[in-house]
Amino acid sequence: MATDTPIDEHAVKEHDTLKYSLLGPSLTKSGQDNVDQQKVSEIIYNASKGSKYFNNEESRDKNLTQKIDRILTKKKQLEKLDLASDRRKADDYIAELELTRDLSQWIVHIDCDAFYAAVEELDRPELKDVPFSVGKGVLTTCNYHARKFGCRSGMAGFVAKKLCPQLIQIPLDFDKYTAKAQEVREIIVDYDPRFESASIDEAYLNITEYCQRNEIGPEEAIEQLRREVHEKTKITISAGIAANAKLAKICSNKNKPNGQFRLANDRSEIMAFMRDLPTRKVNGIGRVFERELDAIGVKTCGDIYGYRQFLSKLFGEKAFAFLMSCYLGLGRTTVQPAEEYERKSVGTESTFGDMSDPVELRDKLRATAEELEKDMVRTQFKGRTLCLKVKLHTYEVFTRQVIPPKAVYVADDLYKYSVPMLSKLEQEFPGLRLRLMGLRCTHLVSMKKPDTMAFFGFKKRPNESGEPDSPSSTAKRRADTLEDDDGWEAIPEELLFEDAERQEREDELNELESLSQEIDKRRHHGKEIVPNPKKQENQEEEEWWDCPICSRPQAANEKEFNEHIDLCLSRQTIRDAVQETSDLRSREPTPAPKKVKTSNDRSKGVPGDPKQRRLFFG
DNA sequence: GCGGATCAC
DNA sequence: TATGGTGATCCGC
């Protein structure tokens, strides 16, 4: 650092935080110990400087600095007050948490080392001794040779090339990684049949029972597991063994690659372990929260205790509870198959060259809708809410959502109901120019029949053997029956609308659907109402437009008219009536039975069908 | 409930 | 030449 030039101290600080941020989210990952971070940071900074990406990062960094200033101001105010009751509240909570401590399980987290790179090396042994990355535009992962140069996942390819000019970049082959991951799973299932896939290359196991049954210690068992995986798949894995999932996850990073670490199931050892652990090592504390905590003086999990009286007021109740569990080294001791988690959304998004032509944007939206339909069919869901995501050419991200009159999954519907959101954005940001577009369905309605029907109490006809369905046989069937059988009894009469009423509601549904189409046509392809404000002047003869929904005349102002229509469309009463009708009509009521609640675990893993899980950064 | 922000992988 | 995709959660309004 130049010390002879006088620089505004504040500017230097911002400079540094930005550089730190530009280093990327995987800074704490392994393989970086011998890297000169200062030099790497300088190269990344210079390679990025002036780009739109850089400008956006700079802007985000400034916002965060302001947010931190507000946090510090608030902390100063709090310090003037009597926080005895807050401290007592925290102490009571700690005592309460302590009662939940469970040291009776051996939980293991395993993590394949540089997984994608390792799989590629098996196919192409010549890669073993040279630095290479998987993924071209952006690195999804890279081998340990490349990491020595400062290359890491999430980094732009051209930046990585600056750090390591001889870097070889090879394309992704997701099917290959999935197949290899399956080989690994076939081995670990012997150690815990209910193991939990956390991603394509990570899993949690509870080996308590395995160790008891085989009269083997946890460390020995995991050494054996790792050896077996290596022998049979040629993949090396790292593992952490501890009393709960949070600790196991931290431990698996301790002796990476190809190593393991055990933290004893002992309260004081766990407390000592956490005391010196940097906050960033905990799953759920990222770059932002790390900076916020650092600003108030919390650098390690042990530091949390001394600030317990401030935390809930500064960061909220959830963060308070989470931080307390970090200080104590507590975490979940349950491990369960990923399929038993409830999926909450299905979505797709893609990046492209800057695009601002309204017709092109609509084509892109249509293509996105078609992609989403595929995923909705594959996962067997409809969505009650549809969410449009855009990223401007400046990298700013915006989302907009609507509640269509019925649960949707067909591309035509996805498109139909998302186009108005796009049009609105075009009004909001004249000359809208995008680099990314995405669609996502939430508030999912399952299209899988057996389970949902059982949940609502509809009985299956007696099966062929004549014996009634036991709960266990129902559960057993659930896993693999997706086919559309029609063996359900008629829906009990009392659950249906009266015929006349049902007919009426169906009519309402049909009418509303055709109305929506009409609205869409008139808004975006018709002559009376055009999204392009420039064309508006020519069609100002009419003073009023009739709302196609409520029939009431509205001022002939495009913006207000659209807003009125949105209001009409989203009227709760219509929505509910239509939703109920369409649900009953298709005999798929759903909300699938709530399966698992995610506790105060701040980790954001992606449960769901492991086969479909996409993982990019190993 | 909506939209922005953060996080994991 | 020029910085990802999928999914989850939390917060402020």
From TrEMBL:
GO (cellular component) term, any one: nucleus
Domain UmuC, chain residue ranges per copy: 107-286
GO terms of biological process kind: DNA repair; error-free translesion synthesis; error-prone translesion synthesis
Basic and acidic residues: bias regions: 579-588
InterPro entries in alphabetical order: DNA/RNA_pol_sf (IPR043502), DNA_pol_Y-fam_lit_finger_sf (IPR036775), DNA_pol_Y-fam_little_finger (IPR017961), DNA_polymerase-Y (IPR050116), DNApol_IV (IPR022880), Rev_trsase/Diguanyl_cyclase (IPR043128), UmuC (IPR001126)
Annotated coiled-coil segments of the chain: none
One term of GO molecular function: DNA-directed DNA polymerase activity
PANTHER family assigned to the protein according to its UniProt record, in alphabetical order: DNA POLYMERASE KAPPA, DNA REPAIR POLYMERASE UMUC / TRANSFERASE FAMILY MEMBER
Protein's UniProt name: DNA polymerase kappa
